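Milestone M4 deliverable, item 7.
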Amino acid sequence: DDTLDQDVAPVSRFVTTRMGNPGDAFSFTATDAADGFDATKYVLDRIDNVQVFTFAAQTVTVHLTHAMAIAHVDVTRTIHYRGAGAATPGDAVQTITWEETTDLVTGVSTCGAPSSPNYPAVTSPSVAGYTPDPTAVPVLPVAATPTICPPASVETTVLYTAVPIVVQTGGTHANLDAGMLVATVMALTGAALLWQRRRATTPA
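Output delivered:
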C-alpha cells in the first residue's frame, strides 16, 4: 500500500506458483497480481518484478494505491419567509455543488473546490403592508477546504411584520397662551349659569 506505506495482506486463499531452472525467464503479470488484492479498494500502481529464476530467494513486490470514489454533492442554503399570511413568499433555495472524493480503503472524504465561493446576498421580497426583517439576507462565504465533507446545508428565516395602521380622529384643540381669554363656568344658586370672562394672567 503505497498510500499508507504499509503491507497489504493478499486476499483469502490467494496462491500463485512459478517453477523454473536458474536462468529461466520469470513472469508475473498485472493479471496475476489482480487475483491477489481487492480491486474494489485498491488500484495496481506497478510491479517490482523478477526477470529470471535464480538459486537465491527473490521477491516480487506489487505496489497498490487506494481506489477513490468521486461524487458531486449539492449543499444548500434555504431562506424561509414567515409572517405575511397568504402573501408570504415561498422559500428561496441556493445551491453549491462540491466534488467529494472518498478513499475506499480508509473511508475518508475530501472536498474539491466548491462551484461558488459563497451563497450570494438575497433581497427580501417586498410584500404590501409588511416589513421584512432582515430586508436582505447577506452573503455567506463557504470554506474552501471544509473540515467535514460535504459541509452541512444551512437555513435562515426572514420574518414579516405588519405595518401599524394609524387612525387619526378629528377634534377642536384650544391652545390657549397667557394672552388669551379663558371662559370659566361657574354654577350659581338657583341652577343659573353665568359666563364670565377673565383674562389669563401672565406669570412674571
